[in-house]
Structure formats: C-alpha cells, structure tokens
User: Fold these one by one.
Assistant:
Number 1:
Amino acid sequence: MENRYLISLSSFGITFSLLLVMVLLALEPMLGSAAKPPAIFVLGDSTVDVGTNSYLQGSQIRADFPHYGIDFPHSRPTGRFSNGLNGADLLARLLGYNSSPRPFFSLGTPLESYLRKHAFRGVSFASAGSGLLYLTNSELIVVPLSEQIKQFATLQGILTDVRGSEATQAMLQKSLFCISIGSNDLFGYVASNSTIPSQEFISILMQEYETHIKALYNLGARKFGIISVPPLGCCPKIRLSEEKGNCSKALNDLAQDFYLALDALLYNITSEIQDLKYSLGNAYLMTITVINNPQYFHIKNVDTACCGFGKLNAEHGCNATANLCSNRRDYLFWDQYHPTQAAANLAANTLYAGPPLYVSPINFAQLVQL
Ligand SMILES: *[C@@H]1O[C@H](CO)[C@@H](O)[C@H](O)[C@H]1NC(C)=O
Ligand SMILES: *[C@@H]1O[C@H](CO)[C@@H](O)[C@H](O)[C@H]1NC(C)=O
Ligand SMILES: *[C@@H]1O[C@H](CO)[C@@H](O)[C@H](O)[C@H]1NC(C)=O
Ligand SMILES: *[C@@H]1O[C@H](CO)[C@@H](O)[C@H](O)[C@H]1NC(C)=O
C-alpha cells in the first residue's frame, strides 16, 4: 500500500517535471540572461571540453577531425565531442555569452600578456577522458582534474598580479565554476573488473571531489554549477555488449549511486562552508527521462550513434569515413558515448531553468543571481 503510494507519487513527480521541461523548451527563446556572471570557468571531461585535447601532444582522445563539428559554423571540427555545440557552449549562451570560454592552452604564453590585451570572460580547462582520479585514462594523455585546478591556480595568480587581489577576488566570487566529471572514473572501474566494492569506490571518488572543490574554494571560487554523470550504461558502445542492445544495469546503478553520494557530499560541504553555493544537475534523471519518453522531446533514436560504424553505429568511433545519420536532430547520441547538440541543448535548458527534481537545491539561473 505504502509502496504503491510512493511509486505513483514519484511517477506523478516525473510526469509533472516532464511537463515543466516541455514548457521550458517552448519558452527557450525567452530564456534571457538574468545575471551574466563576470566569467565562467569550466572543468571536467569530454562533456564540456571545447578543444583542450587538440593541444595535448600524443593525446589519443580527440575530436579535431570530421565528422565532428559538422553542424558547427563552417562545419569546422573544433575538438568538441559533438556534431555542433556542446553542453558548455549551450550553458554559456543561456548565461549571456556566445559560447563556452576558450581552452586554457589557447591563451598562449606569457599568460600575462594575453590577460593585459583581451577582455576576460573565463577559461575552459576541461579535458576529454579525464577523471576525478589522477590515473584515470592517464595512458591516453589527458589533463586530470587535479591538473586542471593547478592550471586555474596559475591563472588566478597571474590575474591577481595584473588586476590586483581585491578585484580578482570580487570577480571570482561572482563567477560560475562549472564542473562535469566522473564518467571516466566509473567506466574505468567497470573495465578493470576491480575487486573494490562499488560503494567503497564511490566514496574514494567523493573524497577526491571534496578535495578538488575545497581547493577551488581556497583559490576564490564560490559558485559551483555541478553536473553529475548520465546513464552511462545506455551509451551505444556499452549497449553493444548487452543482450538486445539494452542498457547496462551495472553502469547505470553506479551512475545513480554517484549522484546520490555527490548530493550528500555537497550538502555536507555547505553545512561546513556557508558561503559556498552550488547547483547540482541530475544528468542521470534528465537523460533517462528522454530515453524513456523520447517522443516528448522530439527525439526518434535513443540507442544508436549518429556517426560511426557497424551495429548500433557504435562498433567503431566517428571519423571522416563513418556512416552519418540523415537527421542529426532526431538522435540522442552523436557518437559511441556523446550526445548530439540537440540532446545537449535539452540538458543545458534544464540545468539553467529546470525544477528541483532535475537541478537542486537551485538551478543555474538562480545560482548566478545570488
Ligand atoms: C575483465 O573481465 C572481462 C570479462 O570477464 C575480460 O574480457 C576483460 O579482459 C577483463 N579486464 C581486465 C582489465 O582484466
Ligand atoms: C531488455 O530490455 C527489455 C525491454 O526493456 C526487457 O524486457 C528485457 O528484460 C531486457 N533484457 C535483459 C536481458 O535485461
Ligand atoms: C556527511 O556528514 C555526515 C555527518 O558528519 C557523515 O556521516 C557522512 O558520511 C557525510 N557524507 C558525505 C557524503 O560526506
Ligand atoms: C575510420 O575508422 C575506421 C574504423 O576504425 C577505419 O577503418 C578508417 O580507416 C577510419 N577512417 C579515417 C579517415 O581515419
């Protein structure tokens, strides 16, 4: 009895929020920027990388060749793991910018001369393949989150030299620190057949996350827009090795546990540090809602990669000779692992203005207004 009540209540909640998300989609052109943050700093993995890995000599995780970028202006591959814009670009647009801030490596050296010559609107440190753990994908050459934070520390020091300490602190306090990471650590855990129990592994990841957030706080960050991990088990590449192309329950369970642990961690951190503010986006729930109700979101295919080879178009990665789907707007997945621009747009709109079921305790629009 009690259980049934709970189930119908929660499915009511989801239906209700689905309606809300649909309303938001209809309102999309009206979502203006309520309060443009002075700068955006982006950290994380391929979900938000805008070209970092193209600068990394020897990196094996890159997207600087066709068909990547086919829907970007001039069909230019930019290193984004997308047919067009990615989540960082689309969020930045909602926040009043034209696109994501540019990669740290693209600023050139010395950094000081760049900062003296150009208007500053933030930097992206995100590196595809990276994780919370230093060793995640290190053999493929990526910038792990701890190194991304060291790069931010360098930048913060130079900004302080150029603009003074007070102005830099004031700017950082109002800036948005957007972090999207964790998927590669979980993929790595499953691929390694680790004997560490999953709850223990997730608590190791949370200790890392806590260290990284506190390091950023100590460097002046106050507003954190954090994106949890999507249903990793539903990526075309993972579906390939499941019966009937289903989602992998093991990976999806990990993704959900990761979200719950992260929610608890952030809640704990803010009870300890009161002037740290955050929004946490539940990428699992957002994406599984689309997978289970694609028609509401005008998506027709939620299991096949748009660009690739073979079964589910996911047996080999996207490149210039890969098969390309005819209507990219109809697909959830662009390649073996990454969303299309259309799917990233749904997520960005929900992070920016969505209800607490998907982004809590407040959404990104509310966070930047604080
Ligand atoms: C993990 O187990 C699978 C299947 O049992 C095997 O194919 C794979 O090589 C193993 N991976 C490692 C890193 O040992
Ligand atoms: C695959 O998914 C279908 C439909 O959701 C479900 O009925 C079936 O039990 C799943 N099969 C396996 C092996 O999990
Ligand atoms: C949150 O804090 C409580 C009480 O100090 C502790 O028991 C719990 O393990 C913490 N959870 C996380 C995820 O840090
Ligand atoms: C694209 O990938 C396929 C499959 O791995 C490979 O056979 C082909 O040579 C690649 N094409 C290019 C242009 O790199």
Number 2:
Amino acid sequence: MRRALAILITAAMLFGFSGCGQSKKPAAETKPSAPAWTLTIEGVSDKAIEYSSEEFNKLGTVEAEPQMKNKDTSELKGKWTGVPLLKLLESLGVKEYSYVAVEGKDGSSKELTPDLVEKEATMLGIKVDGKELDSESGPVQLAVDGKGSNWWIKSVTKITVGK
Ligand SMILES: Nc1nc2c(c(=O)[nH]1)N[C@H]1C(S)=C(S)[C@@H](COP(=O)(O)O)O[C@H]1N2
Ligand SMILES: [Mo]
C-alpha cells in the first residue's frame, strides 16, 4: 500500500514537471537571450548602469567620417557606423558634465572634455565601412574626431561621466 502511494506520488510529480496539459513553453524558450555585449556606465546614477547592445542599437546609429590627426597627418579612417557619444549622454539624461572617460577592456582609458564629446563624428563605433569591428578593436571602438590614434580606445567596456 505504501509502495503504491509512492508510485502514485512519483507519477504525479513526473506529470507535473513535464508540464502535461499546460500551455507554458519550456523556460529555455521564454528566457530573453543575453545581449551581444554590454557597456558599464558610471557617474550617471548611484548604481552603475549596464547598457546592453540592444539598448545601444535602439538609440539609432549614424554614419560619420571621423578624422584621425597624428603629428603630420590627418587621415580619414573610413565610414563609421555608431552612436555619437553626445547622443548616448542625452539618452541618459546627462545635462552637465565636466568630462567623459572611456575605458577599454584592457583598462586603457581617455578623458574627453566637452568640446571633444560634442563633435558630431566623435562616436562609439560598431562598424567601419559596413563591417563589424574585429575582436581586437570591437565590438565597440571610440572614434575621437580630430584626435590622434591614442584617443581611439578599442574594445570599450566602460564609460564614466564626470560631474
Ligand atoms: N583599448 C585600447 N585601445 C587603444 C590602445 C590601448 O592600449 N588599449 N592604444 C591606443 C594607441 S596608443 C594606439 S597608437 C592605437 C593603435 O591602434 P592600431 O594598432 O590599430 O594602429 O590604439 C589606441 N587604442
Ligand atoms: Mo600609440
């Protein structure tokens, strides 16, 4: 008798877990997929913001041709697709700031003054000439219009807004 009860309970559990008669989809299908990449944004709210690639793409990308200025040269580095840094700040409701620091995954970083941030072609780029950035530079690279190659931070992971 005890045994029969145990079997009954086991059977009930199995039916329960298999979701028999329920229209629920398996968890794996309903769980949203992880974003392709994220950026950490500090200095906007008390807690750091994890900005996903999906949110980034929703801001709307633009195309621009930022210039790289090294000692004696001023070079165009192709047609960049990305989100202007200023547009990102606006989406976060940032009105006043004294600098924006952009950091790469290797910890290398640059502090941009407002005059650099506000340049139209200063952007967080995701494509150059229609092609996604390679793993060394991407998925996101900073282009600082009119500044040298050392400003063009690769594989951006963090942005800090300085008040
Ligand atoms: N994340 C990250 N980006 C970086 C650097 C770095 O050390 N880390 N170096 C900068 C410097 S000093 C230069 S000269 C260029 C080199 O880029 P290139 O090898 O594609 O010319 O990347 C810039 N971006
Ligand atoms: Mo450099």
